[in-house]
Amino acid sequence: MAFGRASLAPRSSSTAASGSLLSRVPLWVLRFLQFVFAITVIALYAQDLHGAHNLHRYTDPSWRYAVALGTIAAISSLLLLWPTLSRMAWPWDLTMFILFTTLFGLFARLYLHLDAAGDRGNARMKRAVWIDLINMLLWFITAVWGMILFFFFRGSRSLHTGRATV
Description:
By secondary structure, the chain is mainly α. The protein has six helices and no strands.
């Protein structure tokens, strides 16, 4: 054969698992949910920052941290939709998981023990705590997913020719 020994055998399951549409669609759904819940975090915590600013009051750094983290999470989730950026995203996902764990712990300590029967502000902040927990779990899931793909499927073949080991 003039062109060398080309193999017409199907690609290994590891290539299919790490680069197929079936593995990307759930990740895209998770990234979309991360974006939606990050915007929700910004909206829930920015209300208090805006109110304090209008009253010329001191803004607590905890609320500024929450809004900054929500902004970073929203931008990150959009950037990580691109396959070239998402290949090695698991360390960043793990970092975001740790940051959201901190945020959840901070506001859970402040608001989960309160009775929010008549106070709309406390009820909103209790909901914000649960949104923080959802964010934390979403970033944990994508971190674990990324670690699994990185460590178990990194010895696969290249996508187009199948000759190179990736």
